[in-house]
Design a protein that fits this description.
With 261 residues, the protein is mostly helical. The chain folds into two domains: 1-46 and 61-182, no CATH class; 191-261, DnaJ domain (Helix Hairpins). The chain has 14 helices and no strands. The protein has helices spanning 2-8, 18-31, 35-45, 60-81, 88-102, 106-121, 126-136, 141-155, 163-176, 180-189, 196-200, 209-223, 225-230, 238-259. α7 runs parallel beside α9. The longest helix has 22 residues, at 60-81. It is globular and about 60 Å long. The protein starts with a helix and ends with a helix. 36% of the residues are buried.
Length: 261
């Protein structure tokens, strides 16, 4: 992530006020506890004459990536702490997201963990992170839906959704304008009686063939890797989109085979 390197190199000028700027600044402060990181940052900040070098410029896409990254891990932290404690199951979900989906390097993982830990206990309410995210990504449905699914996975990590977690999920639905069917789809996945192939498409087994085909086309467009990239989603999220795309195709093939389509 080029924007992380720029921030560590002294490019703090792009940070806005409010919770996102505060949580990024605080997370970087924790990174600088490591003397090696601090030494590198200091050398990048100073020119040969001892004067600060000019801060790097951030592209619009890099700024969006920074907001998406910080918002994601801050809101995941708030969600994990919603019921008063962060469980090992919740930590495992977040670690898996960083490792398997984003494939973050060591420095980026440290940065993400620091954001998670700082945000879960800070004074900013969840709604401020959600509203700031919504302001930047109101026209990017894929980004909003990817974030919502990760939040739901953390909320359901221990096999049940606590009422405090459900309250935050409902807030997320409002702020991010999440379609109600997605909320119901994710809830259905937790029910042992749910048919996984249909729930992936947001349907129930009584859906018509036409409804199955329509839902499939919609989901394929939603998670097509090319579309994810075109929306400006960080490349580390491409793996996540590819896995969702694969799930949608496998679910559709399963349903087609069972119906003889």
């Amino acid at each position: 992530m080029s924007w992380i390197g720029k921030i560590l190199g002294g490019g703090m000028g792009m940070l806005m006020g409010g919770p996102i700027g505060a949580v990024i600044g605080g997370a970087i402060g924790h990174l600088f506890v490591d003397s090696q990181v601090e030494a590198v940052a200091d050398s990048q900040r100073q020119s040969g004459t001892g004067r600060p070098v000019r801060e790097p410029r951030f592209t619009n896409q890099e700024q969006k990536q920074a907001v998406f990254f910080a918002s994601t891990f801050a809101m995941l932290g708030k969600m994990a702490k919603a019921d008063g404690k962060v469980t090992q199951a919740e930590i495992k979900i977040v670690e898996g997201f960083m490792r398997d989906h984003l494939r973050l390097d060591k420095q980026a993982r440290m940065f993400a963990i620091n954001i998670f830990n700082r945000a879960k206990d800070d004074a900013y309410p969840y709604s401020q992170y959600a509203s700031e995210f919504a302001r930047h990504f109101q026209n990017d449905q894929n980004m909003r839906m990817v974030l919502f699914e990760m939040l739901f996975q953390v909320a359901a990590a221990d096999g049940t959704v606590h009422h405090a977690e459900e309250h935050l999920l409902e807030e997320t639905v409002r702020y991010l304008n999440i379609p109600h069917y997605l909320f119901e789809e994710l809830k259905a996945r937790l029910a042992p009686s749910a048919d996984p192939a249909y729930t992936v498409l947001g349907l129930t087994p009584d859906a018509t063939d036409a409804e199955v085909k329509k839902a499939y086309r919609s989901k394929v467009m939603e998670f097509h890797p090319d579309k994810i990239v075109s929306k400006g989603l960080p490349e580390e999220f491409l793996k996540f989109a590819e896995e969702k795309f694969k799930q949608v195709n496998e679910a559709y093939e399963t349903i087609k085979k069972s119906r003889g389509l």
